[in-house]
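User: Before I run my own analysis I want an independent prediction to cross-check against. Here's the chain; please return only the structure tokens and, at the end, one sentence I can use as a sanity check.
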Amino acid sequence: MKVLGIVGSKRKKGNTSTLVQETLKAVRETETEVDTELIFLGDYDINSCHGCEGCKDTFKCIIKDDMQKLYPLILESSAIVLGSPTYFYNISSDIKAFLERCYNFEVFDDDDRSVWMSVNEAMGGKYAVAIAVCEQDDEKDMGFTAEAMTKPLEALGYRVVDTVKILELFKMNEASKNDKALEQAKKAGEKLAKTLKLRKQIELKLKTLQ
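Assistant: Structure tokens:
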């Protein structure tokens, strides 16, 4: 199994990156059989969704940009850790474009678009952790950041096992000195790893019962 960490901040050594990496570290330490990989969306040229429905029959986006490099990583991962700073009460533009471009994993009935399913759901479902970071000390100033990640993830067939909301982080490396924030990220990683381990145990047991 593999967990993909996705950082939606341009700061590779920033607070969002630190917390995503802390979560991935906890995953590895809790379940040694799980591999992790970290990507920074700022390293990729990702356009927004065009709404062209070119993915309708193949479940593959037709836009030829760097998102094509990420699709295989998404498909091979059992879970993702998605992290974003708060920009104007919402997720970063990098995270927004990334989530939009996962639209190709949504499948709709030809005659009734109220009937739909995600590719991940059809394949048995996946898991996620969402990490939202905000400069202010009041959670209302985080706005929709957390929900703007968890709602799309759920629609894409991910069960969000934990949502980490961290306030009062702005300056570089503040997260690395914030024990409470690090502990929240760690616990989220541990919970994700235990969830993946439990799934594997259930799958093995079901095979013995057949």
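Sanity check: The first strand starts at residue 2 and ends at 7.
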